[in-house]
Design a protein that fits this description.
Layout: H1 14-38, H2 40-71, H3 76-102, H4 115-138
Helix pairs in contact: 3-4
């Protein structure tokens, strides 16, 4: 039989190979996408698919809210509202503390009340004022 040719071992650089293959694939994919987007029928289908997807997401959110009500679990909106209110309370407490430190208010802390009790009482008053103001806005 014939002689077997001995091939020289070629060193394969895997990084270069992957990079080259990725580049060629990207070029082909870009050409294919450009062809798809130039087609008017395809664009109409994409628009319709996006509309259907949007409707589906809207219905899903509504169902999630209904389920959350039955399970007595807070929704995303509930958590966002609580975060807003807590931020408002924090800002008001900071403003009151600053006014108390500068002495620019007539309200003075009774000497028998501890600082913790005083802050707790202030927070209660602030929460009540926020609730009252939100009730006025709703009316």
């Amino acid at each position: 039989m014939g002689k077997k040719k001995k091939r020289k071992k070629q060193e394969v650089n895997l990084g270069k190979l992957v990079k080259h293959f990725g580049y060629r694939s990207e070029v082909k994919l870009n050409k294919w996408l450009h062809q798809l987007f130039e087609d008017d029928q395809m664009m109409k289908l994409i628009k319709q698919g996006a509309k259907n997807h949007r409707k589906g997401l809207k219905e899903l959110r509504e169902y999630m809210n209904v389920i959350a009500l039955y399970l007595n679990v807070p929704t995303k909106e509930d958590v966002a509202n609580v975060a807003k209110i807590s931020k408002q309370i924090e800002e008001k407490v900071d403003a009151i503390e600053e006014r108390l430190m500068t002495g620019s208010t007539e309200v003075k802390r009774p000497e028998r009340v501890t600082k913790y009790e005083y802050k707790r009482e202030l927070k209660k008053l602030l929460i009540q004022s926020i609730v009252d103001s939100s009730n006025l806005k709703e009316k």
